[in-house]
From TrEMBL:
Molecular function per GO: L-aspartate:2-oxoglutarate aminotransferase activity; pyridoxal phosphate binding
Pfam family name, one: Aminotran_1_2
Keyword Oxidoreductase listed: no
Oligomer status and interactors: Homodimer.
Domain Aminotransferase class I/classII large residue range list: 20-396
Enzyme type, top EC level: transferase
Name assigned to this protein: Aspartate aminotransferase
Species, as recorded: Chrysochromulina tobinii
Alphabetical UniProt keywords: Aminotransferase, Pyridoxal phosphate, Transferase
SUPFAM superfamilies hit by this protein: PLP-dependent transferases
Listed EC numbers: 2.6.1.1
This protein's record includes keyword Transferase: yes
Classification lineage: Eukaryota, Haptista, Haptophyta, Prymnesiophyceae, Prymnesiales
Family that this chain belongs to: Belongs to the class-I pyridoxal-phosphate-dependent aminotransferase family.
GO biological process: amino acid metabolic process
Length: 402
């Protein structure tokens, strides 16, 4: 099989012997020094988890099929917020999952096996794994317009809305990125989310939110969940997939959740039991323990939670700084861009990825001639860029664009 478009790039990068090589292919955070980063709130939580274990207060027993009860409750509260009517009324079925990929995968299998859905609509483009996940679950993958084909770097809201309001059959399942759309970094505005929520409610569309960047996009946990909350307030009953890979830097611990908002507490209980018995038990029985304990402590302890929020601001701020520095360097060099060389899309987009507008040929040339790696759709991870590499990357981009 051909290599994965994202992970295959990392494998090529690791084999590259060139000393100044730069990997902007995979979505990971690096410090200004280019080092992986473990959040101090997570280090503190690790200490507490270790001492609980050493002192015999906790064990390594299996979690239930649905995962850790405290983690599930706190995770649902994080995304739906204190004002959520669905949470207050016990209408949300939450499963702990194997990070965000597992959340989307459980959602996909549930749509197919429990909901009887046969297709799903994805934005064009979307995270490359989405089509594989839904396809593997046996769903037909269709698409709706998202990125403006004329600019290549902005949202075509009219085309998106028109498709969802008229072309997509009523009652269809539709995937939405809650914030920091991957790969484009282009999100609807709050007003556009309101319009979409109204259309989903009117047409009975099932919203499947992928929320992989809450708190990491803007630095504000509530702002990044506004899309989900606006749908819930409009009476849409969404499915919401969550990942703590980026926001808590827990990539390899595989911590996530999927939430099914339903019409009643009885329905939530029925959904939960179906997901447990028909989707999760035959695949992996129960989710991993350690990362969920860490996340529970960070979500539930006021001091750790405050420390985490401060670290989110630092991470989101560093990403914004890298966007601005790269854009400024490209402008200084006079590098050609679709917007007449202003490179404003780099700073207007949000989240860890910049959708540069580079073609697959440009990306191949960048990699072959300058050892700068990004995915072939022109997506570059700004969270992995370090200040010392900005001039080199901008220079290389400028050369391949001319
Ligand atoms: N959805 C989207 C849109 C993502 O960008 C990612 C991370 N690349 C994920 C889900 C899930 O990643 P993980 O399984 O590492 O949580």
């Amino acid at each position: 099989m051909p290599a994965d478009p994202i992970l295959g790039m990392t494998a090529m990068f690791l084999e590259d012997k060139f000393p100044k090589k730069v990997n902007l292919g995979q979505g990971v955070y690096r410090t200004d020094e280019g080092k992986p980063y473990v959040l101090s709130s997570i280090k503190e939580a690790e200490g507490r988890v270790a001492s609980e274990l050493q002192s015999g207060r906790t064990f390594k027993e299996y979690l239930p099929i649905e995962g850790d009860a405290t983690f599930r409750k706190l995770s649902a509260e994080l995304v739906f917020g204190a004002g959520s009517a669905a949470l207050r009324e016990g209408r949300v079925a939450t499963m702990q999952t194997i990070s965000g990929t597992g959340a989307v995968s459980v959602a996909a299998s549930t749509l197919r096996l429990v909901g009887g859905f046969t297709e799903i609509y994805l934005p064009e483009p979307s995270w490359s794994n989405h089509a594989q996940i839904f396809g593997a679950a046996g769903l037909e993958v269709r698409s709706y317009p998202y990125l403006d084909k004329r600019t290549g770097t902005t949202l075509d809201f009219e085309a998106m809305h028109e498709a969802l309001a008229t072309m997509v059959p009523a009652g269809s399942a539709v995937l939405l990125h809650a914030c920091a759309h991957n790969p484009t970094g282009v999100d609807p505005t709050p007003e556009q989310w309101e319009v979409l929520a109204g259309t989903f409610a009117k047409r009975g569309l099932l919203a499947v939110f992928d929320s992989a960047y809450q708190g990491y996009a803007s630095g504000d946990l509530d702002a990044d969940a506004a899309s989900v909350r606006c749908f819930e307030a409009a009476g849409v009953l969404p499915i919401v997939c969550q990942s703590y890979a980026k926001s808590m830097g827990l990539y390899g611990e595989r911590v996530g959740a999927v939430n099914f908002v339903t019409a009643s507490a009885a329905e939530a209980a029925a959904v939960l039991s179906n997901v447990k018995q028909r989707v999760v038990r035959p695949v992996y029985s129960s989710p991993p323990l350690h990362g969920a304990r860490l996340a529970s402590l960070v979500l539930g302890d006021p001091a750790l939670s405050a420390a985490w929020r401060a670290e989110l601001l630092v991470m989101a701020g560093r990403v914004r700084r890298m966007r601005a520095e790269l854009a400024a360097a490209l402008v200084r060099l006079g590098a050609p861009a679709p917007d007449g060389g202003r490179w404003e899309h780099l700073t207007a987009q949000i989240g860890m990825f910049a959708y540069t507008g580079l073609s697959a040929q440009h990306v191949d040339a960048l990699r072959e001639r300058y050892h700068v790696y990004m995915t072939r759709d022109g997506r570059a991870c700004m969270a992995a860029l370090k200040p010392d590499d900005v001039e080199y990357v901008a220079g290389a981009m400028n050369k391949v664009l001319r």
